[in-house]
Amino acid sequence: MQMVTSEQMREIDDYTIKTLGIPSMVLMENAGRVIAEEVLAYCRVRSGNEQQGSAEVADPSVVRQEAIRWELAERERSRGERWLILIGKGNNGGDGLVCARHLMDAGVRVHLLYVEPPESLRGDAAAQHAIAEALGLPRSVYTPGEADIFSGFTGIVDALLGTGAKGAPRGAYASLIRAANGSGLPIVAADIPSGLDADTGGVHDPCIRARRTVSLAFLKAGLTQYPGAEAAGEVVVRYIGIPPVLPRHVPGAGQVLSEASLRSELGIGLDRPRRADGHKGTHGHVLLAAGSLPMSGAALLSAKAALRAGCGLATWALPAALLPHAAGAVPELMTAPIPDDGNGAWSEAAADEVLRLMQARDVLAVGPGLGRFPGEAGFLRALWEGIPRPLVVDADALNILAAAGGLAAWQRRAAATVLTPHPGEMARLAGLSTAEVQRDRLGFARRFAEQHGVTLVLKGARTVVADPDGRVFVNTTGHPGMATGGSGDVLTGIIASWLAQGLNGIQAAALGVYLHGLAGERAASARWTSGSLLAGDIVEAL
Ligand SMILES: NC(=O)C1=CN([C@@H]2O[C@H](COP(=O)(O)OP(=O)(O)OC[C@H]3O[C@@H](n4cnc5c(N)ncnc54)[C@H](O)[C@@H]3O)[C@@H](O)[C@H]2O)[C@H](O)CC1
Ligand SMILES: [K+]
């Protein structure tokens, strides 16, 4: 699913109205109607009223009143509902006015609460105000601090601020947002929760906490990243008459990963048939340079995940002293002991053996459980520069990169180079604070990947994947239980496996995070009730 920024949405609106000639009032009418439909859908779910809305007309001989926009039963069900519509002065407010009208037609009692005097409305919003007046919709103007605004209401529509907002809500907007959040009433947000940064997912103070957000025409990028994703509640994107394909001159802000977008944007079908004439040599060979005496499990998790994700062969290059730990742990895994003078650690000299092993393998995954050691930078640089094949760099290998001056000090590789940092590793690698990385995950990932020519997997809730061409994908599969030791090692193995099977950097990274999350969901549904998830469970669920 396509994401857009506020600026891109304005360009799309402009193009739709001025170039395609679809009147903005038509768009606003559609916007208000779909918001009303989502309010009614929310009411149905809340009342547990699952039966469909089709009204059985009492006397079948009577011609059904097609003129009624809403089924009779809908009106019946809505009788108990009384919604407060918070109206800002821009077009978001206009949407709210249309929504109020449609809710009234569906039998919901409504009250309009203007955050500024209605006279301050302009254009389409002013026209909608005039219609509401002509209909005699009950209304009042908010005065900060007024008490008892919400009593008797069953819900709130937030039509205060949309994509035209700049910075933190000011003045009466801020106090009304705080009051609405404090009311305990369910809030349905028009387009975005007021106070959300629609581009980054950052939330201003205050920001509406919505149960449901109706993102109009296109998904606003900020709704996919925390904390914005939390403030938005359930997000639904609704068509309002704007063609659902981006105009050529609008790049878009990236895609949400799904089977559809993996297929349409990256040409990957989950149902990829295995080649009938395949044999273990045709599905790629992953080499792992990973593991150290205190951390051999990380390498095993990565290796097993790589095999489970479908590569034909996997070899674990490990310090010789670890061999007893490795033998038999994963029978399908081959091992390549590296001389380590008995201390189970890596050394700069180990690079030569890894380079030799890579002459007969397709992909190197370096980092899980690697540990830190003298000569680490020389070791990694030898691999970074000496291997003409795809590389997955994770965990301690990322920390070694960071300690050796960060990517600016490392040459741009021709082959696919996938980095899989969590926010802390990303911060160290970029010489920033974690908060600075998290402030605009989408923008940061895009800029970093383009600047350094790498495929970046910025992990965390709603992992962001960005490639050297500036393409951005957001993953929404996964489960909170995946925040467990070794989960990242599993992801590294999956991505390396798909690279070995012939996918390019962005394909392997996007498919990898998507499958990793799906496997985590499946493992959680099987085990979550009985307690915590283990990284190994994710591997089994692959
Ligand atoms: N353009 C279209 O064809 C459609 C737009 N839709 C809806 O319109 C909003 C965007 O409307 P816009 O008028 O550009 O901005 P807002 O409604 O968000 O108005 C904000 C309004 O408030 C003032 N303001 C800005 N920042 C702040 C702040 N931090 N605190 C207080 N006040 C602020 C400013 O003066 C603005 O006028 C979009 O989200 C859609 O909901 C429809 O969907 C139909 C198509
Ligand atoms: K809003």
General description of the model:
With 542 residues, the protein is α/β, with parallel strands linked by helices. It has two domains: 2-47 and 68-252, Rossmann fold, CATH 3.40.50.10260; 260-272 and 280-540, Ribokinase (UDP-N-acetylmuramoyl-L-alanine:D-glutamate ligase). It has 19 helices and 19 strands. It has helices spanning 6-19, 24-46, 72-78, 91-105, 123-135, 171-182, 228-232, 259-266, 297-308, 323-326, 350-357, 376-386, 395-403, 423-430, 434-439, 441-452, 487-500, 505-527, 535-541, and strands spanning 2-4, 82-87, 109-114, 139-141, 155-159, 187-190, 212-216, 219-220, 234-238, 254-256, 285-289, 313-319, 334-338, 363-366, 391-393, 417-419, 455-458, 464-466, 472-474. It has a twelve-stranded mixed sheet, with helices on both faces. The chain has a seven-stranded parallel sheet with strand order 4-3-2-5-6-7-9, with helices on one face. Strand 15, helix 13 and strand 16 (417-419) form a beta-alpha-beta unit. The longest helix is centred in the first third of the chain and has 23 residues, at 24-46. The protein is elongated and about 85 Å long. The two termini are 24 Å apart. 52% of the residues are buried. Potassium ion binds next to strand 5 and strand 6. One of its GO terms (biological process) is metabolite repair. Keywords: ATP-binding, Isomerase, Lyase, Metal-binding, Multifunctional enzyme, NAD, NADP, Nucleotide-binding, Potassium. This is Bifunctional NAD(P)H-hydrate repair enzyme. Residues 9-248 form the YjeF N-terminal domain. Homotetramer.
